[in-house]
Amino acid sequence: MPICTLPYDGKCELNIVVDVHGTQKELSVLVDTGFTSGTGFGLKLPSDFANYAHYTGTGHVRVADGREVAAATVPDAKIIQIGKHKLGDAISVPALFMNGPRAIGVLFLQKCTVEFDGPNKKTSIDF
Predict the structure, then answer these.
(1) Fewer Cβ atoms within 10 A, N terminus or C terminus of the chain?
(2) Per-residue model confidence as pLDDT tens digits over 40-85
(3) DSSP E strand boundaries for 1-127
(4) Cα separations (Å) of 33 from 10, 93, 103, 105, 108?
(5) Which domains does the chain have, with CATH numbers?
(6) What is the DSSP letter of 1?
């Protein structure tokens, strides 16, 4: 299995290529362990990425300050590349589209082995 090693200084970002219904976009996402599977979503993408979706639903998500906000959603965004590793099989992740930091959360991380090594300032993700 491929391993991605990232710098970690209290936060870490992962470069991915995501496919939203046939449109592929490269972006950097914050690895967010607070973005839990309880929301039903595993990927937070910029709101303008909703323009690439053939269909969207709507969902509500509770943001950090406790407010519930509506967001366009898709059940099937696909992660097709992580760092320089092109995936043999895309990883399908429910995604929401909203402004603010882009994030990848626990719904995706549960499929990986993740190690945060604070003293050595690195994170490794085995996927």
Answers:
(1) N
(2) 789 999 999 999 999 999 878 877 788 888 899 999 999 999 988 8
(3) 3-7, 13-20, 23-31, 43-45, 57-62, 68-82, 85-97, 103-104, 113-117, 122-126
(4) 12, 15, 9, 6, 10
(5) 11-110 (2.40.70.10)
(6) -
Q: Which of 74, 65, 66 is nearest to 45 (CA)?
A: 74
pLDDT tens for residues 5-51?
888 877 889 999 999 999 999 999 999 888 877 777 899 999 999 99
Of the listed ranges 26-30, 89-93, 111-115, the least confidently predicted one is 111-115
What is the full DSSP assignment across 29-61?
EEE-TTS-GGGS-SEEE-GGGGGG-S--EEEEE
Report which DSSP code applies to 120. T
As given in the structure block, the two tokens for residue 67 are 């407010």
Q: Dig out the tokens for 30 from the structure.
A: 């914050």
Helices (H), the chain: 106-109
Here the tokens at position 95 are 């995604």
